[in-house]
Amino acid sequence: MDRTLPDIEGTLFIEMLRSKNINTPVIFLSAKNSLNDIKEGFLKGADDYITKPFDIEELLLRIKAVLKRYNHDTKEVLDLLEYKDMRLDLNLHAVNIGDRSVDLTKLETSLLEVMIQHKGKVLDRDFLLKKIWKDPENIHEKTVNVAIKRLKEKIDPSRAKEYIRTIRGVGYLLP
User: If you ran DSSP here, which 8-state letter would residue 44 be given?
Assistant: First the structure.
Protein backbone atom coordinates (compact mmCIF):
# COMPACT_ATOMS: atom_id res chain seq x y z
CA MET A 1 0.00 0.00 0.00
CA ASP A 2 1.35 3.38 -0.93
CA ARG A 3 0.95 6.27 1.50
CA THR A 4 0.27 8.69 -1.36
CA LEU A 5 -2.95 7.52 -3.00
CA PRO A 6 -4.94 9.64 -5.46
CA ASP A 7 -8.05 10.14 -3.29
CA ILE A 8 -6.95 9.34 0.25
CA GLU A 9 -3.77 9.19 2.30
CA GLY A 10 -2.77 5.52 2.80
CA THR A 11 -2.71 5.62 6.60
CA LEU A 12 -6.27 6.98 6.69
CA PHE A 13 -7.40 4.19 4.39
CA ILE A 14 -5.79 1.52 6.59
CA GLU A 15 -7.18 3.15 9.74
CA MET A 16 -10.66 2.98 8.15
CA LEU A 17 -10.19 -0.74 7.33
CA ARG A 18 -8.99 -1.54 10.85
CA SER A 19 -11.96 0.33 12.38
CA LYS A 20 -14.22 -2.08 10.45
CA ASN A 21 -12.30 -5.11 11.78
CA ILE A 22 -10.74 -5.80 8.38
CA ASN A 23 -7.40 -7.25 9.36
CA THR A 24 -5.84 -7.97 5.98
CA PRO A 25 -2.06 -7.64 6.31
CA VAL A 26 -0.64 -4.37 5.03
CA ILE A 27 2.89 -3.40 4.06
CA PHE A 28 3.42 0.26 3.26
CA LEU A 29 5.71 0.99 0.32
CA SER A 30 6.36 4.69 0.54
CA ALA A 31 8.65 7.55 -0.37
CA LYS A 32 7.68 9.04 3.01
CA ASN A 33 10.76 7.96 4.90
CA SER A 34 11.07 10.13 8.02
CA LEU A 35 10.96 8.39 11.37
CA ASN A 36 7.62 10.13 12.12
CA ASP A 37 6.11 8.89 8.82
CA ILE A 38 7.19 5.32 9.57
CA LYS A 39 5.86 5.50 13.15
CA GLU A 40 2.55 6.89 11.88
CA GLY A 41 2.26 4.01 9.39
CA PHE A 42 2.67 1.44 12.14
CA LEU A 43 0.39 3.28 14.56
CA LYS A 44 -2.38 3.39 11.93
CA GLY A 45 -2.28 -0.39 11.45
CA ALA A 46 0.53 -1.36 9.06
CA ASP A 47 2.18 -4.73 9.58
CA ASP A 48 5.42 -3.57 7.95
CA TYR A 49 6.85 -0.44 6.29
CA ILE A 50 9.39 -0.21 3.47
CA THR A 51 10.75 3.04 2.10
CA LYS A 52 11.39 3.68 -1.58
CA PRO A 53 13.57 2.79 -3.32
CA PHE A 54 13.48 -0.81 -2.06
CA ASP A 55 15.02 -4.14 -2.98
CA ILE A 56 12.48 -6.52 -4.54
CA GLU A 57 14.00 -9.55 -2.78
CA GLU A 58 13.66 -7.81 0.58
CA LEU A 59 10.03 -7.01 -0.23
CA LEU A 60 9.32 -10.66 -1.07
CA LEU A 61 10.93 -11.82 2.20
CA ARG A 62 8.89 -9.29 4.17
CA ILE A 63 5.67 -10.39 2.41
CA LYS A 64 6.41 -14.03 3.28
CA ALA A 65 7.10 -13.12 6.91
CA VAL A 66 3.89 -11.08 7.26
CA LEU A 67 1.79 -13.81 5.61
CA LYS A 68 3.32 -16.48 7.85
CA ARG A 69 2.36 -14.46 10.94
CA TYR A 70 -1.09 -13.70 9.50
CA ASN A 71 -1.85 -17.34 8.64
CA HIS A 72 -0.64 -18.46 12.08
CA ASP A 73 -2.78 -15.85 13.86
CA THR A 74 -5.92 -16.69 11.89
CA LYS A 75 -5.63 -20.49 12.03
CA GLU A 76 -8.01 -20.72 14.99
CA VAL A 77 -10.64 -18.71 13.12
CA LEU A 78 -10.27 -20.84 9.99
CA ASP A 79 -10.91 -24.00 12.01
CA LEU A 80 -14.43 -22.91 12.97
CA LEU A 81 -17.10 -22.41 10.30
CA GLU A 82 -20.66 -21.25 10.87
CA TYR A 83 -23.86 -21.61 8.90
CA LYS A 84 -27.28 -20.64 10.30
CA ASP A 85 -27.38 -22.25 13.78
CA MET A 86 -24.61 -24.69 12.88
CA ARG A 87 -20.98 -24.39 14.06
CA LEU A 88 -18.49 -26.75 12.44
CA ASP A 89 -15.27 -27.38 14.35
CA LEU A 90 -12.74 -28.74 11.86
CA ASN A 91 -10.33 -29.85 14.59
CA LEU A 92 -12.88 -31.99 16.44
CA HIS A 93 -14.75 -33.16 13.31
CA ALA A 94 -17.91 -32.16 15.14
CA VAL A 95 -20.79 -29.86 14.48
CA ASN A 96 -22.95 -28.13 17.05
CA ILE A 97 -26.48 -27.36 15.98
CA GLY A 98 -27.89 -25.06 18.59
CA ASP A 99 -26.95 -26.85 21.81
CA ARG A 100 -26.88 -30.34 20.22
CA SER A 101 -23.50 -31.85 19.42
CA VAL A 102 -23.12 -34.13 16.40
CA ASP A 103 -20.04 -36.28 15.75
CA LEU A 104 -18.93 -36.44 12.14
CA THR A 105 -16.51 -38.69 10.29
CA LYS A 106 -13.55 -37.12 8.51
CA LEU A 107 -15.39 -37.51 5.20
CA GLU A 108 -18.57 -35.88 6.54
CA THR A 109 -16.56 -33.02 8.03
CA SER A 110 -14.82 -32.41 4.69
CA LEU A 111 -18.13 -32.56 2.84
CA LEU A 112 -19.83 -30.10 5.20
CA GLU A 113 -16.77 -27.81 5.14
CA VAL A 114 -16.86 -27.58 1.33
CA MET A 115 -20.62 -27.04 1.35
CA ILE A 116 -20.35 -24.19 3.90
CA GLN A 117 -17.47 -22.60 2.00
CA HIS A 118 -19.62 -22.65 -1.16
CA LYS A 119 -22.99 -21.87 0.43
CA GLY A 120 -25.51 -20.45 -2.00
CA LYS A 121 -23.97 -22.36 -4.92
CA VAL A 122 -25.13 -25.66 -6.36
CA LEU A 123 -22.25 -28.13 -6.16
CA ASP A 124 -22.38 -30.96 -8.65
CA ARG A 125 -21.22 -34.52 -8.06
CA ASP A 126 -18.02 -34.12 -10.11
CA PHE A 127 -16.97 -31.02 -8.16
CA LEU A 128 -17.51 -32.79 -4.83
CA LEU A 129 -15.70 -35.92 -6.01
CA LYS A 130 -12.65 -33.92 -7.07
CA LYS A 131 -12.67 -31.66 -4.02
CA ILE A 132 -13.17 -34.33 -1.35
CA TRP A 133 -12.15 -37.71 -2.73
CA LYS A 134 -9.20 -36.30 -4.73
CA ASP A 135 -9.08 -39.43 -6.97
CA PRO A 136 -12.57 -39.59 -8.47
CA GLU A 137 -11.54 -42.16 -11.09
CA ASN A 138 -11.75 -45.04 -8.61
CA ILE A 139 -14.89 -43.88 -6.82
CA HIS A 140 -18.41 -44.98 -7.74
CA GLU A 141 -20.56 -42.01 -8.80
CA LYS A 142 -23.26 -42.83 -6.21
CA THR A 143 -20.70 -42.41 -3.41
CA VAL A 144 -21.53 -38.69 -3.19
CA ASN A 145 -25.25 -39.42 -2.93
CA VAL A 146 -24.68 -41.88 -0.06
CA ALA A 147 -22.31 -39.51 1.77
CA ILE A 148 -24.74 -36.58 1.45
CA LYS A 149 -27.65 -38.76 2.65
CA ARG A 150 -25.69 -39.83 5.76
CA LEU A 151 -24.61 -36.25 6.46
CA LYS A 152 -28.19 -34.99 6.15
CA GLU A 153 -29.40 -37.69 8.56
CA LYS A 154 -26.81 -36.64 11.15
CA ILE A 155 -27.24 -32.87 10.99
CA ASP A 156 -31.01 -32.81 10.45
CA PRO A 157 -32.56 -36.09 11.62
CA SER A 158 -36.10 -34.67 11.69
CA ARG A 159 -35.61 -33.09 8.23
CA ALA A 160 -37.18 -29.90 9.59
CA LYS A 161 -34.33 -27.50 8.79
CA GLU A 162 -33.34 -28.72 5.32
CA TYR A 163 -29.73 -27.52 5.56
CA ILE A 164 -28.75 -29.35 2.38
CA ARG A 165 -31.08 -29.34 -0.61
CA THR A 166 -30.85 -31.86 -3.40
CA ILE A 167 -31.26 -30.19 -6.77
CA ARG A 168 -32.39 -33.13 -8.88
CA GLY A 169 -30.10 -33.85 -11.80
CA VAL A 170 -27.76 -30.99 -10.87
CA GLY A 171 -26.21 -31.33 -7.41
CA TYR A 172 -26.49 -30.15 -3.84
CA LEU A 173 -27.09 -26.74 -2.32
CA LEU A 174 -26.58 -25.15 1.08
CA PRO A 175 -29.09 -22.30 0.62
Answer: T
